[in-house]
Amino acid sequence: MNQDKLKILSEFFKKLWFNKSSRTGFILVLLVGLCALFAPFITDYQPNVQNLNQSLQPPGKEHLLGTDFFGRDLFTRIIYGARISLGISLFATFLSTILGVGIGIIAGYFGKIYDKIAMRIINLLLGFPKLPVFLIFAGLGGTSVKTLILFMSLFSWMELARISRAETMSVKTRPYIKSAIALGLRKRTIFLKYIIPNIIGPIIASATLLISSMILLEAALSFLGFGVQTPIASWGTILYQGKSELVNGWWISFFGGIVIVITVIGFNLLGDGLRIIFEPKSKS
Amino acid sequence: MYKYFIKKLLYTISVFFAGISLIFIIIHLYPGNPNMLFLNPEAGVEIQQRITEKFGLNQPIVFQYFKWLYRIIIHWDFGHSFSTGKPVLELMGTSFLPSFVITVLATILALCIGIPAGVLSGKFRNSLLDRIITSIMLFFYSMPGFWIGIMLLWFFSIKTNLLPSSNLTSLFHHQMTFPEQIIDYIKHLILPVVTIALPFSSIFFKHVKSKLVDILNSDFILAAKSRGISENKILCVYALQNTLLPVITILGTTLPVLLSGVVLIEVIFSIPGMGRLMVNATMARDYPVVLASAILTFSFVILGNLVADLCYKFADPRIRMGQENESR
Amino acid sequence: MSILNNEILKVENLEVIYPLNSGGNTHQQVIAVDDVSFCLKENETFGIIGQTGCGKTSIAMSILQFVQPSGGNIYFRNKNIRKYNSAELRVERRKIQPVFQDASGSLNPKMTIRNSLEDAIFADKSQKKVKIQKLLDYVGLKYSHLEYYPHELSGGENQRVCLARALAAEPELLILDEPVSALDISIQGRIISLLQKIKNSENINILLITHNLKILRFLADRIAVMEKGKFTEILTKDDFFNFKGGKYSQSLLKLHGYK
Q1: In this predicted complex, what is the ipTM?
Q2: pLDDT value at position B5?
Q3: Most buried pick, A4, A92, A167, B165, via CB within 10 A?
């Protein structure tokens, strides 16, 4: 049985590798992920140790991407910041996915009034501009990473709910679900063993795309000064500092943004690739 | 049509109520004393007391809710700003216009970039041109909108000093002649509008391209081709018509994204609009202003959606009634 | 209400109406089942024959409670199945098990045959193992089949798995909805003989829904002929195949080459 799963996995990777854009995405994501994971082994500098002698050094031999006002190595801050930014984005995506899939499956499976209520809530939340609403949150809870993640998850689950709802509705009509119901299986068993494994593909693809928007959202909120707080390095706070040093240190903003672009492109390509793999229809 | 309009209007109104109630609930369900959260923690006890009484923060929540609702709907009164004491609506009034102008101009520019790019890419699919356009658009789609704003600001204002970096008018705006004033406005608007439009155009590009590719491969286009109708005519008459109609709905649904972008851009370019007002109010814990701007932005979104729906309906009479909910 | 004790299933004036989903405000509807009544007696196989789209499956779906009938009543063992509460329903519906035409589609593609069968048995682990072995022998599958996924098995093998799974619930009524129509002719015969074995050896009653006269001839005791949502007649198998039915039955027989 283990061999079977290995075979499926290797086949899946072959498909992922076969498509040029999903391969690019995979490599980019892997690259950024490894950098974040092995940050201490990649750089000799510390992200938060100030060295005012080295203030605002342009990119060069000593400092690959230059330094900021406090003389901190920008490259170091970016790869350490990746830990914070990716960590927050992944965790918020995880929460969103659970919330969205849960609501989507309930709406799609039970239909009727559940579906109506869920769709109303989804449409309502889709109508909220995220930033202004977050400002209310920020005003209320102050600015903490907890508030940030809570907000990011609470206002991002809708797309996943829509997808899981649609997939559940289509899976629900299959005879194997009818057979499971006729066997008197518990709802929980039906959801976990009969529905979710069969709709997981599009969910994974969509969650991968959601990571992209989470990264952008974190950056935007921290940039405004309401998310991660300085001196902790996250991509958003790097841009926040970069803005005030724009005149003397353009590289802070430039590289701080470039790394976001690379990562987001990576997740977008990977997500699109996964979507194509999981629904062969859109291939043609 | 008439019936559809009434139905849509009722739906919009219900969404409006649900939305503003949700905002109210968020605020009051938040752990901690909701009233004190918005007061400056450094304010003395006596001042806190006075503010609490003045703004009726010590009344029961349900009572506050209905009072608040009543004031908003009947008198369009959002109260007074905690920090300046001015009526909130007055603050809104002066900052609404810049945001509105930027939003509209950015939307037009985004359409002017996104649609032609999508059409070219879809028409010459898999060509070099398509690949170049798609790569650029992927870049636009994946970058933080505000980051490109910062980079443009750096290049055009700091490095080359071609365009002003902040505000909507120059210092000596009032001394200029009228044509000079117009040019002054335009100069100040270019960077913010371009900044918002670039990432936004990629959304249109995506939709237009995929839709156009679908349509160009569909049976009725193949049938038209086999009848010997020229490629260009097919593209212009048959395909574009079916491609561009859905853009109207996309306009409606992407409005929230657009408005979030406006907030960031106003902060970067120091434009005295709604976004900056909100951010500053949040920092100053100026509760009535934050609340009012959130409600106003939300109303703007649902109004935009209503208009988009009606335009779509008006432009394409084939849409069946009653399907509009499922189609999302 | 006089119900004889040997009635397993009694369907009274069943009516099933579907709204037409054309998305308009117009309330169009389709009457799939129109005032159908019949009963199924102990140790009997009751066949319903009719063309595709005549409403046969809707009857099955109503009995299985996948479709809410718009009128009429269904009694199973003298109990109105529409009056179960949700806890009762979960227990009671195990007594009625379906087998569908699409055998591969009736098994969860992400589960091995073993897991599918294990889910169907409500017992502890060791008992499950014994029972699975028994079921496999009964339906003619090998033990090695257990580790396969449905897409790795043939249609006939999958249909055997479906039958094993249905039997695992120890049902009193088996609803067979075109059980062999999707299979190759060569395999059809084997599944039919398996079904005959089930019919003869187990204490199971069968409701057979089909447009296939061959399987009807081998299995059914009584036959209802259905046309456009209505039962035109109910007669015994012998009467049916001896051309004692109405015009529609006779034309059906002729169509399939019976004389």
Answers
A1: 0.87
A2: 83
A3: A92
Q: How far B306 CA lies from chain C's nearest CA (Å)?
A: 21
Distance from CA of B157 to the nearest CA of A (A): 10
Q: Alpha-carbon distance B61 to B35, whole Å? A: 11
Q: Do B141 and A268 touch (CB under 8 A)?
A: yes
8 Å CB contact of C119 and A189:
yes
Q: What is the DSSP string of A77-93?
A: HHHHHHHHHHHHHHHHH
- The percentage of chain C sitting over the pLDDT mark of 70, rounded to a whole number, equals 95
Does any domain span residue C1?
A: no
Task: Give how far the C-alpha of residue A148 lies from the chain's centroid of Cα atoms, to the nearest Å.
Answer: 14
Q: Does A109 touch chain C (CB under 8 A)?
A: no
CA distance A232 to chain C (A): 44
Alpha-carbon distance A113 to A111, whole Å?
Answer: 6
Distance from CA of A4 to the nearest CA of C (A): 9
3-class DSSP state for residue A46?
coil
| pLDDT tens string C175-187 | 999 888 888 888 8
Cβ–Cβ gap C119/A182 under 8 Å: no
* Chain B: residue whose CA lies nearest to A250: B154
Distances (CA, A) of A255 to A74, A163, C41: 8, 35, 80
Cα separation, C230 vs C113, in Å, equals 38
For strands C71-76 and C222-227, give the pairing.
unpaired
Confirm if B83 and B284 have CB atoms less than 8 A apart: yes
Q: Which among B217, B218, B243 has a CA at the least distance from the CA of B117? A: B243
CA distance C99 to C210: 12
CB contact under 8 A, A254 and B151: yes
Q: Is the pLDDT of residue A223 over 50?
A: yes
d(CA C217, CA A230): 82
CB contact under 8 A, B323 and C25: no
Domain assignment present for residue C2? The answer is: no
Q: At what angle do helices B145-153 and A235-244 cross, to 10 degrees?
A: 20
Give residues 289 to 328 of B whose Cβ lies within 8 Å of C.
320-323, 326
- What is the distance between the alpha carbons of residues B57 and B49, in angstroms, rounded to a whole number? 10
Residue in A282, A279, A283 with CA at minimum distance from that of residue A167:
A279
pLDDT of residue B106: 93
Q: Which CATH class is domain A74-283?
A: mainly alpha
Per-residue b/e over B77-101, b at no fewer than 16 CB within 10 Å? ebbbbbbeeebbbebbeebbebbeb
pLDDT at B108: 93
Query: Are A220 and B22 an interchain contact pair (Cβ–Cβ within 8 Å)?
Result: no
* Domains in chain C, number: 1
CB contacts, 8 Å: B322 with chain C: 23-25
B138 to chain A, minimum CA–CA distance in Å?
7
Helix (H) or strand (E) holding B169: none
What would the mean pLDDT of C38-58 be, rounded to a whole number?
86
Which domain, by its residues, includes C39?
Answer: 7-255
C72 contact partners, CB below 8 Å, separation of at least 6: C11, C12, C13, C14, C15, C35, C36, C37
Could you state, in order of their start, the residue ranges of all structural domains in chain A?
74-283
How high does pLDDT run on average in chain C? 85
Taking the Cβ of residue C86 and every Cβ of chain B, the question of whether any pair is shorter than 8 Å is answered with no
The encoded tokens of residue C95 equal 């007594």
Specify the higher pLDDT residue, B40 or A151.
Answer: A151
Q: Which residue ranges of chain B lie beneath pLDDT 50?
A: 34, 320-328
